[in-house]
């Protein structure tokens, strides 16, 4: 299995540390998690938003890696772009937690650029 495919696995689980951070509270009610998330503020709310966005970013990334491999086979460019995607998404989440909106948006843009580059390199 290639590094890029391992990155797909990593991206699939990337939301969960942020999920745990958002839920790490005595007030969290596992019977009513959505009601809990309507009441949180601050870094817990941003952790929740990070996990939601991470789930949203996953399908396009996974498709990009798979399409790239179907067209080009295993290749170093796909591995590098996939690793960069994971790095940018981690930084995105940390910037979100730290409430650094502009830097967070730049990390989102860079990660999205990796997805686009994976598709374009397979064209």
Explain what this protein looks like in three dimensions.
With 123 residues, the protein is an all-alpha fold. It has one domain: Up-down Bundle (Four Helix Bundle (Hemerythrin (Met), subunit A)), CATH 1.20.120. Helices cover 81% and strands 0% of the residues. The protein is built from six helices and no strands. The protein has helices at residues 3-13, 15-23, 33-37, 42-72, 76-97, 101-122. Helix 4 (42-72) packs antiparallel against helix 5. It is elongated. 29% of the residues are buried. The mean pLDDT is 97.
Average pLDDT, rounded to a whole number, is 97
Distance between the termini: 22 Å
Largest sheet report: none
Question: Number of helical segments?
Answer: 6
Low-confidence runs: none
Order of helices and strands: HHHHHH
Structural class: mainly alpha
**Using DSSP, what is the number of strands?**
0
Relevant CATH superfamily: Membrane associated eicosanoid/glutathione metabolism-like domain
Domain unit count: 1
Instruction: Please name the CATH topology.
Output: Four Helix Bundle (Hemerythrin (Met), subunit A)
Rg, alpha carbons: 16 Å
Keywords for this structure?
123 residues; mainly alpha; Four Helix Bundle (Hemerythrin (Met), subunit A); 81% helix; elongated
Give a summary of the structure in a few sentences.
With 123 residues, the chain is mostly helical. It is built from six helices and no strands. The model has no long low-confidence stretch (mean pLDDT 97).
């Amino acid at each position: 299995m290639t590094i890029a495919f391992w990155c797909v696995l990593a991206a699939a689980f990337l939301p969960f540390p942020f999920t745990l951070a958002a839920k790490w509270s005595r007030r969290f009610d596992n019977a009513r998690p959505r009601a809990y998330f309507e009441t949180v503020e601050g870094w817990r709310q941003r952790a929740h938003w990070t996990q939601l966005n991470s789930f949203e970013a996953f399908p396009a990334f996974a498709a990009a890696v798979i399409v790239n491999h179907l067209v080009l086979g295993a290749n170093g460019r796909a591995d590098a772009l996939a690793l960069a995607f994971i790095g940018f998404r981690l930084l995105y989440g940390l910037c979100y937690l730290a409430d650094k909106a502009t830097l967070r948006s730049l990390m989102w843009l860079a990660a999205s650029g990796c997805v686009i580059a994976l598709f374009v390199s397979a064209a």
